[in-house]
Inverse folding.
């Protein structure tokens, strides 16, 4: 029998000890034309749950719950072969094409106008990726003209003739996707990519000087070119970009989606993945600093973690030339939700440099929501994402954490407790996010406030369970959720609570308004 006596841990917060301002765009999503993300996920006119536009009303309600602030679209690998003009005009005359990235059929029944209507209804910023694979820099500039210019030119007038006279004003633009990967349509080396990205960004900005651009970083830390690709692109493109993209998918066992076959699961190391996430952000933040110095620049470039999630089981990406194939339909469990929670902790810890993040993806394809034609359920990872998105705001605090160490094969001894915290001076709300990584030991946590103690804890939620592999399904949609718990009572300047093994706890504190 493992020892289940609680071990002691402490967390001290000070509202003046901060790591950075929390960008609301950290709580973003990604909708790619692949598998059943768009078709049969977001858009499914054949579903009894669709509205007159074909949008799934149940999915829209769940997406609103998550409170996404930015949505990346339309890919992903898909974008590197996408002709955006296929997706405009009357639906009946839009072409069917082979989408080479995922060996699928693209019907183009959902395109730029449908996506913008979707994003506007969610109240989220759009983040468009342009095709720098088969697409030219002129195609990229034409798309900016179509989306953002007032009428009076060829493409803006075309937009108006397709039903939208007011410009969409899309601000965030990704310059291609994962251009270092051999799987990418139009893969390039770092110098060729940097040249094309600089020229595309230049034309796109000439079209609309208000846009923000995001250059591709390495597709993964496991890429042989990492971090050399990043240094090259950053040094060359620094003055033409506002953000630099990073991608990573976590797996049990480590490290990547492509090479876990035959390796033994290692949950202790997996639950310590945030050490890898922190190091990834630190490395690229350092690369940005060096590129800034090399360019003698006065501007700052920030990190855009525009693909992140757990992904290692549903690996096959072959759509066998069908519409809406069931690919990458990963089913998430408790340990995945805990890793997602620690990843969100990383975003808060690195909030001085990470300013945009998009979970990949939002529906069906490695996603927090799974649908079938007559219903949907929330996966385990839905809960940490939604709790952070709804409660982390203002500034990220730098917590002083003292907790027992536990050994891991991959990272050595790591703290059993992974923590982040936020404080919003405008509302007086503070949030603390605690992950107990131990599979066996509860932790008795003393949480104290060194300066401005809250008046009360006003909310608390917890996800936990004995089985790290427990998951939700259509049959048991609520097997693993974040359940409300009674918030501990403040005594003096502190509270104490016991967090079970394998758990994620969110505590909401209300301070006096400032
Ligand atoms: O999110 C799934 C895929 O993963 C994206 O299309 C690609 O950019 C990444 O390799």
């Amino acid at each position: 029998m493992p020892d289940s006596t609680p071990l002691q841990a402490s967390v001290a917060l000070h509202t003046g000890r901060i790591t950075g301002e929390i960008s609301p765009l950290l709580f973003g999503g990604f909708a790619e034309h692949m598998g059943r993300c768009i078709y049969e996920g977001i858009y499914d006119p054949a579903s009894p749950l669709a509205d007159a536009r074909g949008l799934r009303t149940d999915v829209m309600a769940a997406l609103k719950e998550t409170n996404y602030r930015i949505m990346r679209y339309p890919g992903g690998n898909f974008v590197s072969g996408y002709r955006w003009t296929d997706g405009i005009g009357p639906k009946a005359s839009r072409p069917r094409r082979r989408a080479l990235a995922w060996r699928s059929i693209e019907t183009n029944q959902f395109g730029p106008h449908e996506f913008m209507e979707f994003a506007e209804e969610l109240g989220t910023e759009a983040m468009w990726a342009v095709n720098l694979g088969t697409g030219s820099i002129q195609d990229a500039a034409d798309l900016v003209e179509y989306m953002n210019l007032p009428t009076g030119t060829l493409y803006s007038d075309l937009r108006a003739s397709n039903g939208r006279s007011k410009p969409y004003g899309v601000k965030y633009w990704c310059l291609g996707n994962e251009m270092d990967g051999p799987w990418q349509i139009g893969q390039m080396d770092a110098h060729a990519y940097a040249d094309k990205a600089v020229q595309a960004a230049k034309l796109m900005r000439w079209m609309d000087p208000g846009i923000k651009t995001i250059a591709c970083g390495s597709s993964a830390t496991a890429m042989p070119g990492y971090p050399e690709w990043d240094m090259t692109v950053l040094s060359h493109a620094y003055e033409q970009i506002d953000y630099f993209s990073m991608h990573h998918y976590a797996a049990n066992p480590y490290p990547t989606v492509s090479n876990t076959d035959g390796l033994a699961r290692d949950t202790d190391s997996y639950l310590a993945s945030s050490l890898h996430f922190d190091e990834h952000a630190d490395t690229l933040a350092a690369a940005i600093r060096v590129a800034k110095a090399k360019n003698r620049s006065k501007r700052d470039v920030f990190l855009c973690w525009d693909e992140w999630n757990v992904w290692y089981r549903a690996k096959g990406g072959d759509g066998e030339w069908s519409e809406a194939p069931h690919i990458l339909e990963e089913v998430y469990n408790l340990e995945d939700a805990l890793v997602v929670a620690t990843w969100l902790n990383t975003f808060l810890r690195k909030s001085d440099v990470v300013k945009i993040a998009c979970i990949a993806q939002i529906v069906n394809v490695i996603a927090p929501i799974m649908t079938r034609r007559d219903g949907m359920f929330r996966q385990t990872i839905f809960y940490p994402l939604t709790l952070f998105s709804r409660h982390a705001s203002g500034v990220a605090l730098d917590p002083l954490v003292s907790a027992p160490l536990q050994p891991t094969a991959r990272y050595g001894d790591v703290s059993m407790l992974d923590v982040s915290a936020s404080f919003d001076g405008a509302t007086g709300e503070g949030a603390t996010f605690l992950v107990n990584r131990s599979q066996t030991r509860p932790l008795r946590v003393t949480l104290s406030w060194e300066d401005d103690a809250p008046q009360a804890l006003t909310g608390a939620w917890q996800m936990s369970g004995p089985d790290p592999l427990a998951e939700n399904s259509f049959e048991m949609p609520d097997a693993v959720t974040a359940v409300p718990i009674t918030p501990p009572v403040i005594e003096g300047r502190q509270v104490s609570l016991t967090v079970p093994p394998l758990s994620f706890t969110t505590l909401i504190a209300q301070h006096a308004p400032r």
